[in-house]
Amino acid sequence: MTLHPRDWSEIPEMTVQIAQKSFAKGNVYMKMRDELGVLYKDNDFVTLFRADCGQSALSPGQLALVSVMQFAEGLTDRQAADAVRSRID
What we know:
Mean pLDDT: 88
Largest sheet: none
Strand content: under 5%
């Protein structure tokens, strides 16, 4: 796989608006992002990928964050996949 690092520090404005309307008081993950910013950056993983081999990788930074959230919530892989599909926050 080849990694094309992306900067995840900017959240699309429409996503921000919908999340704020959905969670007026926020939630633990929104507060975590507000306080800590991006926890895992794609550039932190760049040495694990070759630049000339295979298709583009999914964001390893986002995958690491989802794994941490999955563990914190005590979710199985299937439950975590369902949660990702059904939540915007």
